[in-house]
Amino acid sequence: MNACLYCEGVHTSQFTFSQFLRGVENGLCELCLKKCLFIKEPYCLLCGRSLLRLSSQFIDHDICKDCAIWKTSSYEGMMTKNRSLLHYNDFMKEWMKRFKFQGDYALLPSFKKEWRSLFYQHFKTCSFIIPIPLSEERHFERGFNQSEALASLLPRQIVSPLSRIHTEKQSKKNKQERLQEELFSFSFSRKLNNEEVLLIDDIYTTGATLYKASKVLKQNGAGLISAMTLARS
User: TM segments (predicted)?
Assistant: First the structure.
């Protein structure tokens, strides 16, 4: 039996002998998993937001109204879709606080099995993975890039063609402020050659970060661009 990564209680799952031989991966106990809300269909075909939890007035056919607005902006077509694993509920806010802001890196494998399953379900044809970068100042402050950590759990090459321009934290800005701000520059040694790429980030909030990253990548030769995030607010 293993201790839960989050509450350190006993993990009661039963493992086969073959799993034991290759090493049991830690995870969350059943009590902690019950506090998680995994996103299920129906969801917005663009951003992956659950439509079950959304009033009909905020749904435009099979996409949410936020994505309908993105489709009429200059960012239309930059990103094919985002898929998120979990709702950003109270449990995930506390989990993210410990992982991202308090540096509890040991929490990383909490959702490894489900995270990889989401990848194989939607993104197995991508050429490589691009984590959303942090500015040098923010990286120094936190000690690691949470998006790079999440990307490391997936079976694809990780490349870093984007550099982050240091700004005030995105969580402190409204949607209009996020839209007006330049976030990324292209810092790769070559243009992308129409490759299919997957952006990785921790939380999808307004979509501004991912759309801005996608636009820079498109301007530098990327083909299909999708995104995968651990949580959707």
Answer: none
pTM assigned to the model: 0.89
Mean local confidence (pLDDT), 36-45: 96
Q: How many CB atoms lie within 10 A of CB 108?
A: 18
Please indicate, yes or no, whether residues 67 and 159 belong to a single structural domain of this protein: yes
Tokens at 60, concatenated: 């435009």
From the list 189, 210, 190, the residue with the least C-alpha distance to 201 is: 210
Element (H, E) at 227: strand 225-232
Share the mean pLDDT of the chain: 89
% the chain with pLDDT above 90:
76
Neighbours of 195 (CB within 10 A): 15
Q: Over the stretch 194-221, which tens digit does the pLDDT of each residue have?
A: 999 999 999 999 999 999 999 999 999 9
Same domain assignment for residues 28 and 51: no
Q: Are residues 51 and 73 in the same domain?
A: yes
What single-letter amino acid sits at 110?
S
Where in the sequence is the domain holding 29, given as residue range(s)? 1-34
Structural domains in the chain (count): 2
